[in-house]
Specification:
heterodimer; A: mainly alpha; three-stranded antiparallel sheet; 64% helix; elongated; B: alpha+beta; five-stranded mixed sheet; four-stranded mixed sheet; disordered N terminus
Chain lengths: 325, 605
């Protein structure tokens, strides 16, 4: 069970993190006038770069076609499916059902659903990890300050956190994002800003418990510096606790990002996202191909993350690993 | 009060002078007036109509207030309240002739700026109090009050409408004279004010805005707002003993007893409600819905019918409005270049494909007032490039976006309706070719409107409601630019345009006026703070088939489903028998005749 879901998640991640290789609008390799280029990793190449008469991003599919028909020496290797998450194809009236070209159909702007599904997952996953890292950092630093400082600092910080934790963060986030125009970094910062206190309260409790142990007292008596005590003696006791927390937190944040996008307050268009696909599906209930991949995707990822999280938690469970005699 | 006026005549006079109200009630109107009326206007209703029943339709957000003026008042919901406030006369939508409403007769004064109205003594407020001449003088007092916090109303009722006087004929009938500050050709149109219930509002004070947020004022129209389920729905009830129900033009109209408006956030969800039978009728505004509808069972089995009716009426200025006070948009060349960078034709031809047309400019569909020579700027990258270069945006960064002084050309387009996203995504993609990074920001409708009125946007997508003649002052006059809570979304401020607007409003004959309208449209085209998008020459409805319409379902200027409007509203009725049979058929899954009704009576050939 654990292995199955672990493998599934791994495959999911592998597919999405190597997406450019097999589904994307930029070629892997271009040979143009005896030089090799790799647009997949280089900066945006305008059409003029390849001798076309326009200054915006090269239309590689058409360029490839024209090189082929003119029998030119130039060639390029396109990904298996030459469609990016932003490639608009209006040959069929959007949203178009799945066919041989668009395996999961197109969305309401004629973009490939499969591409948007894959790239959307990657974005959400990366943002979740970044969000997680930022939130944990803030929570941990404030928990340490709170737990290890004199009583009055702790008192003030605790009251502050108690107030902060009561703010309904999704609503505040929605209110804030309608005031500013968003990008990924700002969205992560706003969300972290409102979601650290819960974690911080748990961590503080954990640190308070750890710092009363005899070996900490011993370390203090040996004259070790505060930083050293924190780093080598307290934090190692906090990691297992944190580690068992993380998978669930990750699952939660994936859902948060999807919800925000769904509500239209997440990443602005045209960023691909699962929430955007769900939103479109809501508006066009007949277009099953918009919602189906996301629902399956959410089911798989959340189940996998939860199963893995359970496994980690069991591994860290003090009742199974510690032995008080 | 009367005694007080008699005792302090000087004071009363000076007060009246200051507020523009003439206290001489009782004086007779000039004998030289030539009274006009229209006893038998062409009917737009059907004699088959019967009264009774209920329809449920929807609105996309709950109103922020019930006030019809002041902060947050200009929402879609306010239109419903306004429709139930009748005015003195109304224009026949098909024949363009005036029809008596609250005034039984009218007469034009020889001074070119005054209109006399003989008030219909039968007119009653919904609380059964008679509508008096003093209610019209109160309108002026009300609209001029600083407490209503409505700069536009303050301005209009001071600089346009100068005075309201009341008279009494020998028979006892009241007459009012409304005088404009300047002679105009649209005297009836501009003096056609509505009465305000003085007995309800009393003396206005600084608390007006909060005090009247949720109070239902008495009205004179066919329906009264009856229940208010905050955030959920509102119900309008037909007045059984409505004072005007026997007036010729209102025969067989306003038939349904209850009109319920349910809050449903967007039309796609509303469409699901419709199919489930939870709402009875709705406009099908997007091609998407019309297409989907053909495939659905409730339509196939004939329970729900579709109507597409052409109209010939002023078109909304459905446009991207550029805030000309914002950074790069201050430069007219950038605004023009941006217009060349919007691939609207691709949206129409490849995405919408459904009889949509490119809107060529502002003020379309106003007959001679529309400057036909103006054509919207097409998608033309070389023109865009040239203009951007002239404005100093010649170089592009590594992402292909234009830069000037190290800053990229990034502009945010704010809009309220998610169904616009697919269209804007296409504009966004093609704008990138012109080196413009167009960001899209979707806002809640109420939030969007507030933000546009506060000029917090860079580019706003908005469509203005229309009027009989093009109206320019509120949207283009410099006195409303760069001020919060006004309608000049583009922050257009030009003395030249101000002058044109003055001349347009005060032209002495139609030829001159039309010339000025054309000049204004030309100016706006050159100024390029409006990028016109689409127009739709028809409206579409989907309705459960027991809702019945006259043979010509609407009028020349009907658009969607006018519920209460004096000129065009309330033509439909409910066929109770059919309702029962359709319900029964639906229960059994039987077929009834399907109908996709296309009416082109008013199609512009």
């Amino acid at each position: 069970m654990k292995k199955f879901w672990g493998l599934t998640l791994f495959v999911f991640l592998l597919i999405s993190f190597t997406a450019e290789l097999w589904i994307g609008a930029r070629p892997l390799l271009v040979r143009y006038q005896n030089n090799f280029h790799a647009p997949i990793i280089s900066a945006m190449r305008p059409g003029s770069f390849f001798g076309e008469d326009y200054a915006w991003e090269t239309d590689y599919v058409n360029l490839q076609e024209s090189w082929r028909t003119s029998g030119s020496d130039n060639w390029m290797v396109m990904p298996w499916i030459p469609l990016g998450p932003l490639t608009i194809d209006l040959k069929q009236s959007p949203p178009a059902p799945p066919d041989s070209q668009h395996w999961l159909g197109t969305d309401s702007s004629g973009r490939d659903v499969l591409a948007r599904f894959i790239y959307g997952f990657r974005t959400a996953f990366l943002m979740s990890v970044a969000y997680l890292a930022l939130t944990v950092t803030i929570a941990l630093i404030l928990a340490l300050i709170s737990a290890l400082s004199p009583g009055w600092v702790d008192l003030i910080l605790q009251r502050f956190m108690e107030i902060w934790v009561m703010i309904p963060f999704l609503y505040v986030a929605i209110a804030l994002v309608s005031l500013v125009s968003l990008d990924k970094v700002l969205l992560i910062v706003i969300l972290s800003f409102f979601s650290w206190p819960t974690l911080s309260l748990y961590l503080r409790a954990q640190i308070l418990q750890v710092k009363e142990h005899d070996y900490i007292l011993a370390a203090k008596m040996l004259g070790l510096s505060r930083l050293r005590i924190v780093w080598f003696h307290i934090l190692p006791q906090v990691w297992p606790f944190l580690l068992s927390f993380l998978p669930f937190f990750l699952a939660g944040s994936l859902v948060t990002f999807t919800s925000l996008d769904f509500l239209g307050f997440g990443l602005p268009p045209p960023e691909p996202s699962w929430g955007d696909l769900l939103q479109q599906a809501l508006e066009r209930p007949h277009a099953y191909w918009l919602a189906a991949p996301v629902l399956v995707g959410l089911f798989v990822v959340l189940t996998a993350v939860t199963v893995i999280g359970e496994a980690i938690r069991n591994k860290q469970n003090p009742r199974q690993t510690q032995n008080y005699r | 009060m009367v005694r007080w006026v008699v005792l302090c005549p000087t004071l009363a006079f000076s007060f009246a002078f200051a507020s523009g109200i003439d206290p001489l009630l009782g004086a007779e109107p000039p004998a030289s007036l030539r009274w006009e009326t229209n006893p038998s206007p062409e009917l737009i209703s059907s004699p088959k109509a019967v009264t009774g029943g209920r329809i449920i339709t929807f609105m996309d957000s709950f109103p922020l207030t019930l006030r019809q003026v002041g902060p947050d008042a200009s929402s879609g919901f306010r239109k419903l309240l306004d429709e139930n406030d009748m005015s003195l006369v109304t224009l026949h939508p098909n024949t363009d002739t005036w029809i008596p409403m609250l005034a039984s007769h009218w007469a034009l004064d020889s001074d070119g700026r005054t209109v006399y109205y003989r008030l219909n003594p039968a007119a009653r407020w919904s609380d059964q109090k008679p509508v008096k001449a003093s209610d019209y003088t109160f309108t002026l007092e009300f609209m001029r009050s600083p407490h209503i916090q409505s700069p536009w109303s303050n301005d209009y009722y001071t600089t346009t409408i100068q005075n309201v006087e009341s008279f009494q004929e020998k028979s006892g009938t009241e007459v009012i004279a409304i005088r404009l500050a300047q002679p105009t050709l649209d005297r009836l149109l501009m003096t056609n004010i509505k009465p305000m219930p003085r007995h309800f509002y009393g003396e206005l004070d600084a608390n007006f805005v909060t005090k009247f947020n949720w109070q239902i004022p008495p009205n004179v129209g066919p329906y009264l707002l009856a229940t208010l389920d905050k955030g959920q729905r509102v119900t309008f009830k037909r007045k059984a003993d409505w004072w005007a129900k026997d007036m010729p033009y209102f025969k067989h109209r306003f038939n349904v007893d209850d009109v319920v408006l349910q809050v449903v956030r967007n039309s796609q969800i509303a469409f699901e409600y419709l199919k489930a039978g939870d709402i009875d009728i709705m406009p099908l505004n997007t091609p998407d819905l019309w297409k989907t509808a053909s495939a659905d069972d409730v339509f196939g089995k004939g329970y729900v019918h579709k109507l597409q009716a052409y109209n010939e009426q002023p078109r909304s200025d459905y446009a991207l409005i550029l805030n000309s006070s914002y950074g790069p948009l201050q430069d007219q060349r950038v605004r023009q270049a941006l217009a060349y960078a919007m691939n609207v034709d691709r949206v129409i031809n490849e995405l919408l494909k459904d009889g949509y047309q490119r809107l060529q400019g502002i003020s379309q569909g106003y007959g001679a007032f529309t400057a036909r020579g103006i054509k919207a700027r097409p998608f033309d990258l070389s023109q865009a490039d040239e203009l951007f270069k002239l404005a100093g945006w010649g170089t592009r960064n590594a992402d292909g976006i234009r830069i000037k002084d190290g800053k990229p050309l990034t502009l945010t387009l704010s809009y309220a309706y998610p169904n616009m996203t697919p269209r804007f995504v296409i504009l966004q993609e093609d704008a990138r070719k012109a080196g413009v990074d167009l960001k899209l920001q979707q806002l809640d409708p109420a939030m969007a409107f507030k933000s546009f009125r506060d000029k917090a946007h860079q580019i706003a997508f908005f469509s203005w409601s229309t009027s009989y003649r093009p109206e320019y002052r509120s949207r283009f006059h410099s006195s409303f630019a760069n001020k919060p809570q006004t309608a000049n979304f583009s922050n257009t401020a030009s003395p030249v345009l101000d002058q044109l607007i003055e001349e347009y409003e005060h032209a002495s004959d139609d030829r001159k006026r039309i010339n000025q309208a054309h000049a204004i449209q030309n100016f706006v085209f050159q100024d390029s703070s409006y990028i016109p998008l689409f127009e739709v020459p028809y409206y579409r409805l989907a309705y459960w088939s027991w809702i019945q319409f006259p043979e010509v379902p609407g009028t020349k200027s009907t658009d969607g489903l006018p519920l209460f409007d004096s000129a065009t509203g309330g033509l439909f009725w409910i066929d109770g028998d059919r309702q029962k049979s359709v319900m029964a058929a639906r229960k059994r899954g039987d077929r009834t005749p399907a109908r996709s009704w296309i009416n082109d009576t008013f199609r512009v050939k």
